[in-house]
Amino acid sequence: MSKRENYETKTEQLLIPIAGKYGVEIYDVEYVKEGGEWYLRAYIDKPEGVAILDCENVSRELSDALDAEDFIPDAYILEVSSPGLGRTLKKDRHLEKSLGAEVEIRTYKPVDGRKEFTGVLHAYDGDTITIEEPRPDTGETDADKAAEPGTERVLNRKEIALIRLTFDF
Predict the structure, then answer these.
(1) Which of 58, 50, 71 is nearest to 15 (CA)?
(2) For residue range 128-143, what is the model confidence (pLDDT) as tens digits?
(3) Most exposed: 8, 36, 51, 54, by fewest CB within 10 Å?
(4) Which pTM was predicted?
């Protein structure tokens, strides 16, 4: 296990009772270096949405717990927030909750000449992600479009740089 993974796992363990106390779930924990600074980010969620007070309460208790354990020797910035509308789907539990939702996928290298794909998350397993891409707009009526499904596309998980939920305003 890498240093990063170790810190994320230990932080998640500290976060479990805190999240339970405040009625939120742990969406993800990440330890990353950006612009020369280390960031420890905890993403929390709940069905009705996360409020600023939720983030503040969890942040204060998590900060105290991290100070008490003191297992991260580097200086870092602690951030606690919601994963947001366009949340990244990193783990199988994220994919499970998002089956049937529209997602955006970016690949490391072009696949069939493209690096970006959008479609409804249809299925996943340890090796692949399957989406149903919308049919190209051919000027058909909505009834015609609904009668015929889109194109199923299977992408290798090793080729995927990012999967996140799409959102429309």
Answers:
(1) 58
(2) 999 999 876 655 555 5
(3) 36
(4) 0.76
